[in-house]
Design brief:
It is built from three helices and no strands. The chain is an all-alpha fold. The radius of gyration is 24 Å and the shape is rod-shaped. The chain starts with 18 loop residues before the first helix and ends with a helix.
Amino acid sequence: MMENNDIQIIAPKEQLKNSSAVLIMGIASIVCICCGPMTIAGIVLGILAIVLGSKSLKMYRENPDLYTEASMKNAKAGRVCGIIGVSMSVIWAIIALAICGSIFIGVMMESILENM
């Protein structure tokens, strides 16, 4: 007698779309904080990492059986790095503007006092 065995075919899991790119952009957004004029690039890369990371995580939540857990962790880490990069870049930009503004005001006050 033959038994009726069900054979289950398991498809290999895929990488989440853009998960590696999200991680790279998130890390780059943190690195750009230290580069003065590159702070704007850090903000842009951070925002891209947050948006693309959120999309990738949404795809994973909708169908976790299709994607690898490692790619989900990459997307999550890249998104967190993007949040940190944007936050710190904005803080750095505010500090830089405050310093430049105070120097400008100091120079203006000095020239006004010299002309009196």
